[in-house]
Structure formats: C-alpha cells, structure tokens
Amino acid sequence: MISYDQKIEITGALTVTAVSSGYCLGSSNWVIYLESKKLVYVSNTSTLTTHPRPMDQVNLKNADLMLLSSLTQAPAANPDSMLGELCLSVAVTLRNNGSVLIPCYPSGVVYDLFECLSSHLDSTALGQIPMYFISPVAHSSLEYSNILAEWLSQSKQNKVYFPEEPFPHAQLVKSGRLKHFKHVYTDDLWNDLRQPCVVFCGHPSLRFGDVVHFVEYWGTNPQNTIIFTEPEFPYLEALAPFQPLSMKAMHCPIDTSMNFTQANKMIKDLKPAVLILPERYAIPPTGFGHKNEFVIDQIDRKVLTIKRGEVISEKLDIKTVNVPFTTEMVVSVTLSELQSGLKASKFTAVLDTKDNKYKLDILRDDLLANKTTEPYLLETLFKKTYEWGQLDIDRFLRALTNEGVSDPKIEHNAHGYTIHLKSEDTLIQVDDKSTHIFCEKMDKNWRLKLRSIVMECLNSF
After folding, report:
1. At what angle do helices 444-456 and 393-402 cross, to 10 degrees?
2. pLDDT of 285
3. For 56-68, what is each residue's pLDDT tens digit?
4. What is the three-class DSSP state of 458?
5. Distance (Å, rounded) from C-alpha 306 to C-alpha 99?
6. Which helix (DSSP H) or strand (DSSP E) does residue 215 occupy?
7. Is the CB of residue 117 less than 8 Å from the CB of residue 124?
8. What average pLDDT values come out for the chain (461 residues) when binned by 10 residues?
C-alpha cells in the first residue's frame, strides 16, 4: 500500500511512484524509473474538475516511454450533458409518480450523482424525495470517502480540516434523504422504502446484485425509469433477459475518462519519446467514419500499437547507472583542475553490488592485509598518478634522444603519425585516442623503458 507521490523500490531494479490521475478516489497513474530511463503508465485519467484530486501532469513529462490506456468508452457523449439529461429524466419520472433505478458501482461517479441529483431535486421542489443506496459496502464507502482527504480535490480537502464533511452525501445521510442498506433482504429496507424514490444499486451489467430484484419489482410499471450511467455495458443487451419490460430505459453514459482530444493535448504537453497504445486508438471507432477527433495523433513521435493479448518488445538503451559514494568516500575525494571547466580526482574504492544497487566504499585495511591479494593489484591500488590527454610528440622525441635513440623517423597520416625507430627495430603508432608499440626486439627492459617514456609524455594527475 502506498500514498500519492511516495517512491518505493522493487528489488532494487525499479523505483515506482503513484500520482493522481483525477478519475476517482485513489485512481493513479504510474511513473517507473529504470536506472536512467523514465517509463509512464497512464490508466483511467480525467482532466475534469470533480471530487478527486486533480490529475498530476508534472511527474509524467518527458518520459522515455509512455503506455496509454483506458480512454473514454463513450467518446461521443459529453459527461456534463449526460449528467444534465439524467437529472432531467429523474425529475420527470418522479413528477409522474414513478421511481428511478440507477445501476451503479458503490464508488466513483455515484458520489457525483448524489451531489448533483440532490441539488437538482432541491431546485425543482422535489427535495423531499428519498434516495436509497444499496450495497454490501454502502456504509463503508460513504464513510471512507469522507476521511481519505489525500484523494480529494483541494476544496474538499479544506472542508476536512475545518472540520466539515467534504461530500454533501454526509449531510444527506444525517437528514434522512439518503439511506443506505447492505442488501434487499433486510426488513429495514422494505419497512422504510417510500415511493416514488431513487435507488442506487449494482451491478451495472444487470447480471447479478440487488439491481436484478428491482428490475423485476418495478419493471412492469411504465411510470418507472431505469437509467444506465456506466458506459462499459451495452444497455440493450443488459435488459434483454428481462424483456418484455414496461418501465422506461434511459442511456446516459457518464465517463469522465479523457477523450481523444484531451489525450492528444496531454501527449503534446508531456512529450514522451515513445508512445505505446492499443491498436483501436489509432483508427476511428465503428460508426464514426474517419473522424480524427476519435483517434490518437501519431505525428512527431515514435508510436507503437498493440493488440489485446499481444506482447511487444521495445529496447531501452540504458548507457549509465548511478553509483553513489559513501560518506567516507566523499570526504576522501579531492578534485584537481585538469583544464578550464574540467576537474577530476583519483581515488581507490571497493564497488559493492547488491539487489541491483551499486555503491562505492572506501578501501579498508583488512582487504590490503589479505594474503591472497595479487601483486599487480597492490601496484594498481597504490598508483600515484593517472595519465590522460594526447601524447606530447616533441617531448617524446627529446626523451628518446636522451635514451640514445638518434634515428627516429616520423610519418604523418590521417589519424595521427607513426614513429619508426630503425636501430631498435620498433614501430610506434600514435592517434588521437591510443598509442600502439610494435617491437621485434626481444628485450623486456627496452619495452618497459618505452612504456615509461610514453607515460611521462602524457598529462597526469
């Protein structure tokens, strides 16, 4: 369990952060850091101003790879318009002495329905009409939504600290206008049920849950209305097993997820290097022709599409890893200026690797005291200077002369030059980044002497 903006590590290989997606209470987008690479997963996301904490776009910017999913399932339906139609239909049904059934989930949009519908009923002189919320988790859903301030918009967070209930449904419960029950089998519900009324219960598919009983209970009365708000279930297919049905059916899909226009604007602002999205987001949906407002723009970036169940591979070119110093190591390092704007330091350390993490620690005496330490390793550990830069050819020729070599011959080429020492049967090739010595003379001391001369003619620190 993590909070918004909290960073957690997974086996040392990944750092994961959840940021608000603005869709519902606790809804999150995910930022995954893999060494120097940033991956972003965009799930159900909303840029609308409702009860959840607003979408966090800052942490999603400039990702190396973005996975985009869960855009609106009702691209042609405006949520505000659908909410207005719902409130109007509820008011008309109640005035005609009918009751309203709204199949819904026990959290999410239902909080906005409580708020908007109660306000609309008040404005139309129907404020005395009761609302019933039926779900095994109805009570806990209403209670938790009032105390989990981290998930809420700023205006609702401020009410928590006053203290006031952030949602109007708390006052609706206190006043008796909104009543909640665990299931339809409780006597308390049927003793209290007063019609006309509005009932919220699930499941939106009408295949299970308490809503099934209300469809059968109210379905024969043409004055009643069932209103579908969840876009993921075709409402005609949901009603098919209950036909013939006399009650009216309304379809007002309220999906606050981003539409394609909002998603294109977000992608343009976030500037991901690579975008991965479902294949159906790249082509207009059936029935909408070639309307570009229902597809994701694929210009100015690399876009990969994926089908359901398909596995795709995208290489992340990780060239560097972060290796922190211990405090003792930091104290032991002294920077020397090699040239203007460039500083370096020599240090000897132990590289510790564990759980995909790296750390440089100071070299301790117990390692040096180990009798198995190889002589060449000790020589490296106690090395005093480090060479860098290009070979100073004039200095190198003078050093050769001092060693008794009198016949060096220099030939320039495209990459550097070649020095031929005929008397010593030696060839030295020098370019911008390397020096190679070819010596046919079977004299180990001469080869070591040449090596020392080359090292002395390089910059060092």
Report:
1. 140
2. 65
3. 888 889 888 999 9
4. coil
5. 45
6. helix 211-218
7. no
8. 87 87 84 89 84 82 89 79 88 91 84 83 86 78 60 63 59 74 82 87 89 90 91 88 90 85 86 87 67 71 85 81 84 81 82 82 67 57 69 79 77 80 78 79 76 79 70
Mean of all residue pLDDT scores within the chain:
80
User: Which residue type sits at 210?
Assistant: D
Closest-CA residue to 409 (of 400, 396, 421): 421
Region of 289 on the Ramachandran plot (φ > 0 left; ψ -120 to 50 alpha; else beta):
left
Q: Which helix (H) or strand (E) holds 354?
A: strand 349-354
Q: Which amino acid is at 162?
A: F
* CB-based contact 296:280 (threshold 8 Å): no
Residue 330's pLDDT is: 85
For residue 32, the model assigns a pLDDT of 94
pLDDT at residue 286, as a whole number: 65
User: What is the Cα 390 distance to its own chain's centre?
Assistant: 46
Query: What is the rounded distance in angstroms from the CA atom of residue 94 to the CA atom of residue 196?
Result: 6
> Residue 416: phi, psi to the nearest 5?
165, -120
- Give how far Cα 155 sits from Cα of 50, 71, 79, 335, 337, Å: 10, 26, 21, 52, 54
Please give the backbone phi and psi of residue 52, each rounded to the nearest 5 degrees, phi first. -75, 165
Structure tokens at 119: 């306000």
| Cα gap 460→452, rounded to integer Å | 13
* Element spanning 250, H or E: strand 248-251
Residue 179 · residue 132 · CB < 8 Å: yes
**DSSP string for residues in 27-93:** -EEEEEEETTEEEEEE-S---S-SSBPPP--GGGTT-SEEEE----S-TT--HHHHHHHHHHHHHHH
What is the pLDDT, as a whole number, of residue 143?
60
Q: In what order do the strands lie in the sheet with 65-68?
A: 7-10, 14-20, 28-34, 37-42, 65-68, 274-278, 302-306
